[in-house]
Amino acid sequence: MVFDGIILAGGQSKRMGSDKGLISYKGKQLVEYAIDLLTPFCENIVISANNPQYSKFGLPVIADDMRDIGPVGGLLATLPKSQNRYSIVVSCDMPHLNSEAVNLLIEYVKDATCYIPKHNRGIEPLFGIYHQNFIHTLSETVNNGNYKLRALFSPLDTFYVDFNILLETHLSLFLNFNKLSDLKR
Prior knowledge:
Blueprint: E1 3-8, E2 24-25, E3 28-29, H1 30-38, E4 42-48, E5 61-62, H2 71-78, E6 86-91, H3 99-108, E7 114-119, E8 122-123, E9 127-131, H4 134-143, E10 158-162, H5 164-169
């Protein structure tokens, strides 16, 4: 199966104080971790961002059509442009994600609309595999004024992948960075 990659980097980064995807962490900008993660798995990669500085990475940068509505705005702008049925979606602020995590999600892809990691502390919708058909659910929900990604998953269309075992060996797998102090972890 062939995948596209979507990197969500369009957030306002209010708590970080500057565009978090462009902040350096251990010698690389945060968005570079997502690019490096997706490159072996994806035929095409786009960056969902409202900042033209992301074009320096040599990938298409797609701005939100509807701004200030969070990750759903990025997905609304990028999913319709996917060239393959499924896209691996990664938030730019999760540098500890690894190929094991991607492989675990891919292992389950069959005919569901979304494949989302689930563990004892909840779900991780900012790292998942989304079918192009998810755009219909996104559009309808946004038109109704709901911008919460977690509220969009239907039990009929979503397959939750158990990540508890992987988290036992990779404790910081879903650690995301929202403040400058988080970069010290």
